[in-house]
Design brief:
The chain is α+β, with helices and mostly antiparallel strands. It has one domain. It has four helices and nine strands. The strands form three sheets. Strands 3-2-5-6 form a four-stranded antiparallel β-sheet, with no helix packed on it. The protein has a three-stranded mixed β-sheet with strand order 4-1-9, with no helix packed on it. It has a two-stranded antiparallel sheet with strand order 7-8. A hairpin with a 2-residue loop joins strand 2 and strand 3. The radius of gyration is 19 Å and the shape is elongated.
């Protein structure tokens, strides 16, 4: 472990009550793109814009992302989250308060993807 990393860990342990909340926050940015571009983006059923777009989502939740464009089949991508083990270890070393704060805010979590590139298929004319 380098000197800078060790210093950051020590500062985190002794000065801040919850590492993940302060250093990472409880949201993640997700870049969405499609081929062809200009697809409507629906996140859990809510229209969020057109591709390409960057959106900010709460890390503690999971999401269903739909790419919709007239003349093309809808593409659905599920975004999951996971707990960052490093944050939990630092919080445990820091005591009970960091655990409570990071667990309550969801700052322990990260989304399993940072970028989604959907290739939309043309609908077949019947």
């Amino acid at each position: 472990m380098g000197t800078k990393t060790l210093s950051l860990v020590l500062v985190c342990l002794f000065l801040f009550p919850s590492c993940a909340t302060l250093f990472k926050g409880n949201s993640s940015k997700l870049d969405l793109n499609s081929d062809p571009q200009g697809a409507d983006i629906y996140v859990n059923g809510n229209l969020m814009g057109k591709t390409p777009v960057r959106i900010k989502l709460e890390s503690k939740l999971t999401y269903s992302i739909e790419f919709r464009k007239e003349g093309f089949s809808t593409k659905t991508v599920n975004i999951q989250n996971h707990v960052g083990a490093g944050w939990i270890i630092l919080d445990i070393l820091g005591g009970l308060l960091p655990i409570i704060v990071d667990a309550a805010t969801g700052a322990w979590y990260d989304l399993d993807q940072k970028n989604v590139n959907a290739i939309l298929e043309k609908q077949q004319i019947k």
